[in-house]
């Protein structure tokens, strides 16, 4: 049976996972402008399937794939990969980046509540304090952004509901992942849910690919696509599942605040964007939530 990582190693894995997510989200903006959403998802899962082909095999520490485990693997990919992407992308297009940022700040709360309801985890007061700091920091960061110039969309109310659905999908991803790490290795979980993502995105991906001009894609963009696929399908998922093996889901959910923090840093350091002093303060408050959640507890 494979061993769980130590708490410090698990914290590092969770932090690196969310930091990578924020980094590739910021760097993949040109990809989103070039490739249609379904085609980008299909190519991403296809590259991930090739990269993780060896991880599909059962390892000595893995339990047999019982019907319940197979169902959980499908739900993990359906909520965390497929449905989250659709709800998030559509919700942002109907509302805006500021609204999406405020709504996504509730992910740590949703993860904590679902882990309490479904996993029966006992959530310490310090974890709730960390959740409050994380939510407050990201909400303040989003609210401190300049006002969006676009007029309100006629279906903005639908976009808000879709963003809330994306929050629940991400929370379900964390909670179901915690269950899966008890019976399967992080590598095998990553590979199987990626295959499900490829299957779910194939119909629309093939339809869009039939009409897409692949010759117009430059070599640097193909390189960026390769990095995006490996980061999104392989590295971040494996790191997240590895960290979940040793950390309660509610505590792990706090690390999602590193997503907007890393995205903001990439925007400043790589893309030349500007962040106000109030936004830096907001990111500091959110980061303080991670410090509170991971601070070593005093021994009796």
How would you describe this protein?
The structure is a single chain. The chain is mainly α. The chain has helices spanning 7-27, 29-34, 37-51, 67-94, 97-104, 107-118, 125-143, 156-180, 186-211, 219-244, 249-253, 258-269, 277-294.
Q: Can you summarize the main beta sheet?
A: none
How many beta-strand runs? 0
Question: Oligomeric form of this entry?
Answer: single chain
Please give the alpha-carbon distance between the first and last residues.
31 Å
Instruction: Provide the low-confidence segments as ranges.
Output: none
Q: Which class of secondary structure composition applies to the elements?
A: mainly alpha
**What string gives the helices and strands in order?**
HHHHHHHHHHHHH
Beta content comes to under 5%
Judging from the principal axes of the Cα atoms, what is the shape? globular
Query: What's the average pLDDT?
Result: 82
Q: What is the overall number of helices? A: 13
- Percent helix, as a range, is over 70%
Q: Cα-atom Rg, whole angstroms?
A: 19 Å
Describe this structure in a few short sentences.
The protein has helices at 7-27, 29-34, 37-51, 67-94, 97-104, 107-118, 125-143, 156-180, 186-211, 219-244, 249-253, 258-269, 277-294. With 300 residues, the chain is mostly helical.
């Amino acid at each position: 049976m494979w061993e769980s990582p130590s708490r410090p190693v698990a914290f590092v894995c969770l932090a690196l996972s969310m930091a990578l997510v924020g980094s590739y989200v910021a760097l993949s903006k040109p990809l989103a402008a070039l490739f249609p959403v379904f085609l980008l998802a299909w190519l991403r899962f296809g590259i991930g399937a090739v990269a993780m082909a060896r991880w599909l095999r059962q390892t000595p520490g893995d339990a047999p794939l019982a019907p319940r485990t197979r169902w959980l693997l499908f739900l993990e990919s359906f909520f965390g990969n497929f449905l989250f992407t659709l709800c998030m992308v559509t919700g942002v297009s109907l509302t805006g980046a500021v609204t999406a940022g405020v709504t996504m700040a509730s992910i740590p709360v949703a993860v904590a509540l679902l882990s309490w309801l479904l996993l029966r985890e006992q959530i310490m007061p310090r974890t709730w304090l960390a959740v409050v700091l994380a939510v407050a920091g990201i909400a303040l960061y989003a609210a401190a952004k300049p006002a969006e110039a676009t007029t309100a969309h006629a279906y903005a109310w639908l976009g808000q509901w879709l963003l809330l659905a994306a929050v629940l999908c991400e929370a379900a991803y964390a909670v179901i992942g915690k269950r899966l790490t008890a019976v399967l290795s992080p590598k095998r979980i990553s590979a199987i849910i990626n295959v499900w993502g490829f299957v779910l995105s194939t119909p629309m991906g093939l339809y869009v690919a039939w009409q897409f001009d692949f010759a117009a894609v430059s070599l640097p963009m193909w390189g960026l696509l390769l990095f995006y696929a490996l980061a999104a399908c392989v590295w971040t998922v494996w790191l997240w599942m590895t960290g979940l093996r040793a950390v309660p889901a509610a505590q792990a959910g706090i690390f999602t605040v590193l997503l907007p923090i890393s995205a903001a840093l990439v925007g400043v350091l790589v893309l030349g964007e500007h962040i106000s002093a109030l936004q830096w303060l907001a990111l500091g408050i959110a980061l303080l939530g991670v410090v509170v959640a991971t601070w070593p507890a005093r021994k009796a």
